[in-house]
Specification:
By secondary structure, this protein is α/β, with parallel strands linked by helices. The chain has one domain: Class I glutamine amidotransferase (GATase) domain (Rossmann fold). The chain is 33% helix and 17% strand. The chain has eight helices and eleven strands. The strands form three sheets. A seven-stranded mixed beta sheet has the order 5-2-1-6-7-11-10. Strands 3-4 form a two-stranded antiparallel ribbon. A hairpin with a 4-residue loop joins strand 3 and strand 4. Helix 1 crosses helix 8. It is globular. The two termini are 12 Å apart.
């Protein structure tokens, strides 16, 4: 039987939702591996809406589930209905929506809170010893919930290639172990069944992002 993987989205668009290329790469690699993706998102308002041309917030309001449905081509479910029993693994792509809609990392960093629905889902998969794949900024969710876990968001020294490296330092302060890696690499925390990769935390060609996410998906399915 095909493995069933929950993919949790956070809206549509890098600056206020899920990073579209990351979400698409996850779905493509799951499809290629013969796995069945089941897409979910919380039925909540976004923290704010960003004009992706100007890079500035706008006064409008949008719903995370409704916006995520754009990526899922309408085939999406309310995160509140997710039942871990019928699923083999969980993957959460990155994008600022993870730090704005699924958590308050964007405004509070290591002192953030995580949406109760999202935390409940992560804890349910962890308790069931089912693998969790996280890329780009989404490993901060594991760092906050699972002290002592091992993750990667790329490198911990800021430079032109790694503009968000301070994220790694904040995660270390939460008590997790950050493992430096290249964009096409993944890190597997076997004890916690976490698979992480940096994706767009790195200024890299889009095909390298796609390949790194492919490795993440393959490792998640291997552990499932």
């Amino acid at each position: 039987m095909a493995k069933r993987v929950a993919v949790v989205l956070a809206g549509c668009g890098v600056f206020d939702g899920s990073e579209v290329h990351e979400a698409s790469a996850v779905l493509v690699h799951l499809s290629r591996a013969g796995a069945q993706a089941e897409v979910y998102a919380p039925n909540i308002l976004q923290m704010h809406v960003v004009d992706h041309v100007k890079g500035q917030p706008t006064p409008e309001q949008r719903n995370v589930l409704v916006e995520s449905a754009r990526i899922a081509r309408g085939n999406i479910k309310d995160l509140a209905t997710l039942d871990v029993k019928g699923l083999d693994a969980l993957i959460i792509p990155g994008g600022f929506g993870v730090a704005k809609n699924l958590s308050t990392w964007a405004t509070q960093g290591k002192n953030c809170s995580i949406s109760k629905e999202v935390e409940d889902v992560l804890r349910a998969f962890h308790a069931a010893h089912k693998p969790i794949g996280l890329c780009c900024i989404s490993p901060v969710l594991a760092a906050k919930i699972f002290p002592g876990c091992e993750v990667t968001v790329g490198h911990d020294t800021e430079c032109e290639q790694w503009p968000y490296a301070k994220t790694a330092e904040a995660m270390k302060e939460l008590g997790c172990r950050h493992v430096n890696s290249q964009v096409t690499e993944v890190h597997v925390d076997a004890r916690n069944r976490l698979v992480t990769t940096s994706a767009f935390m790195c200024n890299a060609p889009i095909h390298d992002i796609h390949d790194g996410i492919g490795k993440m998906v393959r490792e998640v399915l291997r552990l499932a």
